[in-house]
Q: What sequence folds into this?
């Protein structure tokens, strides 16, 4: 992904909305997270861990889980939810771990914030030789008409831009496999609106613009009997990629 000014401003926009993020964003299906790990993985790093949405799944799959996250607001939110998981300050380009420490490094919804060449090299350094790099993204399933209408309202910059189907890997990673999991995330209306507000291109709008957009999303919900109840079923596709040397 391009590293332009808009991108750099947004990269650390999450801390300010860590609570909204935690309330609104979906977790990850265990099947997708388990798939990116090598057999018998014991030491796993969640890189760009945010509030720990993937970290909490990893703690059910591996004995030693470490979170690395650059944003202090996100680190605080993660420590609140997962007090037993060490959370270190760091980035994909500079990971505060020794060489060959990890069996797997997992990057959930965050690879597009990193420089793929520098981060591939740095992850290669902390991974043992037969370790894996797992990249995971949740995307709302836009083949469902109301989801497509909502995305159009949000004027999002095209989630495909993030490279979820063909992410850029660099050396030392040479081999790459992909897996998709379809699932439904049930949210209350309040959580659903938090999910919309937590997207970086919404949270960085001027307040009036953001309120207007949230109003248009509420109108969309009110106009569809399937969406106007207490629980909103949001269809997702989780894209999982497993890379190795
Ligand atoms: C969309 S959030 C994903 C958080 C979490 N992994 C999840 O799945 O919910 C993106 C995260 O990447 C972090 N981030 C931004 N630039 C980064 C970088 N260069 N290296 C590591 N993490 C970065 C942000 O602070 C934010 O917490």
A:
């Amino acid at each position: 992904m391009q590293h332009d000014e808009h991108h750099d401003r947004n990269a650390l926009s999450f801390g300010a909305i860590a609570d909204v993020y935690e309330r609104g964003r979906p977790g990850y299906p265990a099947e997708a997270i388990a798939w990116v790990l090598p057999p018998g993985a014991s030491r796993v790093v969640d890189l760009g861990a945010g509030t720990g949405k993937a970290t909490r799944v990893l703690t059910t799959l591996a004995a030693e889980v470490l979170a690395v996250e650059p944003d202090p607001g996100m680190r605080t939110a993660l420590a609140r939810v997962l007090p037993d998981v060490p959370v270190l300050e760091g980035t994909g380009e500079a990971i505060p771990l020794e060489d060959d420490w990890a069996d797997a490094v997992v990057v959930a919804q965050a690879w597009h914030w990193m420089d793929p060449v520098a981060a591939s090299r740095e992850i290669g350094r902390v991974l043992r030789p037969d370790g894996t790099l797992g990249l995971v993204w949740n995307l709302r399933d836009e083949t469902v008409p109301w989801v497509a209408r909502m995305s159009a309202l949000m004027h999002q910059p095209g989630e495909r831009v993030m490279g979820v189907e063909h992410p850029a890997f660099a050396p030392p990673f040479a081999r790459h496999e992909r897996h998709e999991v379809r699932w439904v995330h049930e949210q209350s209306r309040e959580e659903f609106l938090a999910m919309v507000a937590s997207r970086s291109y919404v949270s960085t709008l001027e307040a009036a613009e953001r309120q207007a957009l949230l109003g248009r999303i509420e109108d969309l919900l009110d106009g569809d009997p399937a969406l106007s109840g207490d629980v909103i079923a949001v269809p997702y596709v989780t894209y999982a990629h497993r890379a190795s040397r």
User: Anything to note?
Assistant: The chain is about 35% helix and 25% strand. Strands lie at 43-47, 64-68, 87-88, 102-108, 127-140, 175-188, 231-244.
